[in-house]
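Worked example 2:
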Amino acid sequence: MPKTPMQISGQPITWIERNLVVRALESIQDLIVISLCIGLFGVMVLQLKDMFISLLSPSNFQFHEITADILFVLILVELFRLLIIYLQEHRVSIGVAVEVSIVSVLREVIVQGVLETPWVQILVTGSFLLVLAALLLVRAWIPPTFERIDPETRISQAYNYHTEVPSNDPAIKLQ
């Protein structure tokens, strides 16, 4: 029985270059995120134009709608910031995503009106906001783990820095 090329060389046959494929897919993903940023920016400009037009026409001035528009623009700005962070670091910022969720929930409560909302929905919304706040607190306690920041290396470097005794310093005497 003839041996396969895998059995002869001991190396797997690679039909495609894995690094090249990964770089190509990351580039395509970046293009998708860039197009989302451009679209989101366009929506923000249109929303701001509509908001300023409604502010300038005193006959059509409705405080409730303008407040909802302002909160909607703030949500769009936070989403834009989330996309920019993704483009820079290729990760989704949990903190920004939770902040967007909190502002979105509060916008819906403000737009709908607390007095017109059923008490069960207010209770569920409050519970959801408490979970999001807890997630923000937990996220603040967890050390960041990215490519450039490795908590274990940082801790070991700090430990080595505090335990090393400089040998050139005559003022420090070893016992």
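The chain is about 70% helix and 0% strand. Residues 16-144 form one domain.
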